[in-house]
Amino acid sequence: MGKKKNDFAARVALVVVANLILGGGISLLRLSGFGTDPFTCMNLGVSSRLGIGLGLYQVIFNTILFIPVFILDRKSFGIGALVNMFGLGYFIEFYMFLFSAGGITIEGLSGVMTARIPLLAAGVLVVCFGIALYMLCDLGAAPYDRLGVVIETYSHKKIKFKWARIAMDLISIFVGIVTGSVIGVGTVAVAFFTGPIVSFFREQVIMPVMKKMGLHIEEKQ
Questions:
Q1: Which of 42, 137, 156, 199 could form a disulfide with 175 if both were Cys (CB 3.0 to 4.6 A apart)?
Q2: Quick check: 189 and 124 in contact, CB under 8 A?
Q3: DSSP of 124-148, one letter per residue?
Q4: How far apart are CA 158 and CA 152, in angstroms?
Q5: CB atoms < 10 A from the CB of 90, how many?
Q6: Which residues have CB under 8 Å from 190's CB, separation 6+?
Q7: Given this model, what pLDDT does residue 95 score?
Q8: How far is CA 19 from CA 4, 79, 81, 205, in A?
Q9: Which residues, in sequence order, are CB contacts of 80 under 8 Å at separation 6+?
Q10: Which long-range contacts (CB under 8 A, 24 or more apart) does 210-216 make?
């Protein structure tokens, strides 16, 4: 029992760290000026139009989306889902505040390609590492991340997850465009390279480290 409690506590701690890393990666993408992931892109655009902060808007949107997804897929939710739903937006805002306090702003980097390109590359890698660690903790997933699974399940696999996710991301990008969010190569890079890079981090980096640390982290496919 003690071992299980220790493993659970470790997973909770890691899921918080994973979301902090994910928030940092998304902030790097924002600073690059090349666009963020589709979901954040949409949320940035809508929250800006509504005149509220990204953190507050994501809490509101995730709560609304949580209701139907939870009804259809209750087993997918846990502490990890709650941390992502209610914390990620504020983590991103916190990082952007720190960058701004240090004199690093999106506007200031707008014409500095030698800085923007490395920020884009670093952002993609950090985001993927955060996602890999977040998934590996197996403590639930946020509503947007589970919606594709719900669509696949309730369509009796007539609509595969990857196609449902692509459709969701395209809708998010469209909403982002309409609401004036930044769409760019970063948005495309995250959409196309997340899968392979996340798999690499999971299998070649995080799992071996967890084993060496003696942590039992369940990995569900």
A1: 42
A2: yes
A3: HHHHHHHHHHHHHT-S---HHHHHH
A4: 7
A5: 16
A6: 29, 36, 37, 38, 124, 127
A7: 96
A8: 23, 12, 10, 17
A9: 11, 15, 134, 137, 138, 139, 140, 141
A10: 210/136, 215/7, 215/10, 216/3, 216/7
Nearest-angstrom CA–CA distance, 22 and 202: 15
Residues with Cβ within 8 Å of 164's Cβ and at least 6 positions away in sequence, in order, are 147, 148, 151, 152
Residue with tokens 């709650």: 82
More confident residue, 142 or 87: 87
Give tens-digit pLDDT for 10-28: 888 999 999 999 999 999 9
pLDDT digit string, tens, across residues 97-133: 999 999 999 889 988 889 999 999 999 999 989 988 8
State the distance between the two ends of the chain, measured CA to CA, in whole angstroms. Answer: 25
Nearest one of 9, 104, 92, 112 to 44, comparing CA atoms:
92
* pTM over cut 0.85: no
Helix runs in 51-112, H state only: 54-72, 79-101, 106-109
